[in-house]
Structures are given as C-alpha cells and as structure tokens.
C-alpha cells in the first residue's frame, strides 16, 4: 500500500504542473513571471535623445539599449523613475557606481562614444518621469518616460516631420553593436554584480 501511495503521489506531481500550464494557456493568461522584457533602443547624439519620449507600462520589464552615436561620451540618467530589478547588462560606468545603482534601483548608464549600453529594469509606478544626460541638461539633452498603468493603451504618436539620422537600431557609428561590444566589459560588469 505504501508503494502504491508513493507511486500515486509521483504521478500527481507530474500531472499537476502540466494541468496548470494547460489551464493558463487555455485562459490566455501568461504567468507574471513569464513576462518577456520589451526591448527599446534610444540613440544619443550631441545634446539629443532620439526618441526623447519613451512610453513604458508599470510592471512590464524593459530592456533599454542606450546607443551613443555621438562624438562625445553621454549617459542616460533618471533621478525619479520608480523601478525595480535593475540590471546593467553592459555599461561604461565604474564597477563601484554600477553596484551602488543596482542596490538602490537607480537608472544611470554611461555610454562612451560609439558604445551601446544595455540596462534591464521594471518600472513600478505610473506617471511622467524625466531623464537626462549628466551635465548636458542645459544643452537640451533631456527627455521623459511616460509610464502607463497596466491595461492602459498609449495614445497614437503624432506624425513626425523629420527623423533623426540613425545608422541602425543595433549598430553604433563605429559598427559596434550589442553583440560586438567588448566582451571583457560585458563580463566584467556582470561578474561584479551577480
């Protein structure tokens, strides 16, 4: 009898996860932990972000590719964006600064000229929050995150009269892209943070 009970428990342990998955799929509901990050690219040039307004959704993970196509070094910082789970996949900041930003959930990613920094995070609160490039706000290098509540649709964008020149959404001016950026830099940042 004991062996029969153990056998029944093992069969049940195999069936229950599949039943939960099947029910979830049938209802069309994705588990919260299964949310894939929304990937966005922002291009930095001299004293300009393109786009300078980024719409996010509270609770939706984001992968933000910060691509510096300018001749000068720039960064993207936000002092007031409420977020959680920040991870600097690639960034040109010092290891000490990145550790501090991760422990306090602060967005502050440096991108040297021709480099692409990659940051993942989840915004937590709906509202409008500013971002800027440190020491370049007075030159107009500012933008805003518009964080929508879950289920709220973003308004349709206004027609654009001109587009900023962009070489590619994944390649910086010198041909350096997300996959070709210094492996030492990427592994150094990951190794020091986790």
The CATH H-level superfamily of the largest domain is Cupredoxins -  blue copper proteins
> What string, H for helix and E for strand, traces the elements in order?
HEEEEEEHEEEEH
With helices defined by DSSP (H or I, 4 residues minimum), what is the helix count? 3
CATH topology of the largest domain: Immunoglobulin-like
Task: Please summarize the sheet with the most strands.
Answer: 5 strands, mixed
Radius of gyration: 21 Å
Question: Strand content of the residues, in percent?
Answer: 25-35%
**What separation lies between the terminal Cα atoms?**
48 Å
Structural classification: alpha+beta
Describe the structure.
The protein has 194 residues and is an alpha+beta fold. It folds into two domains: 1-34; 35-152 and 168-193, Cupredoxins -  blue copper proteins (Immunoglobulin-like), CATH 2.60.40.420. Helices cover 24% and strands 32% of the residues. It contains three helices and ten strands; from the N terminus they run αββββββαββββα. The protein has helices at residues 2-27, 95-104, 183-193, and strands at 38-45, 48-50, 53-57, 62-68, 74-78, 83-90, 107-111, 116-123, 127-132, 142-148. The strands form three sheets. The protein has a five-stranded mixed beta sheet. A three-stranded mixed beta sheet has the order 3-10-9, with no helix packed on it. A two-stranded antiparallel ribbon has the order 5-7. Strand 1 and strand 2 form a beta hairpin. Helix 2 packs across helix 3 (183-193). The longest helix has 26 residues, at 2-27. The protein starts with a helix and ends with a helix.
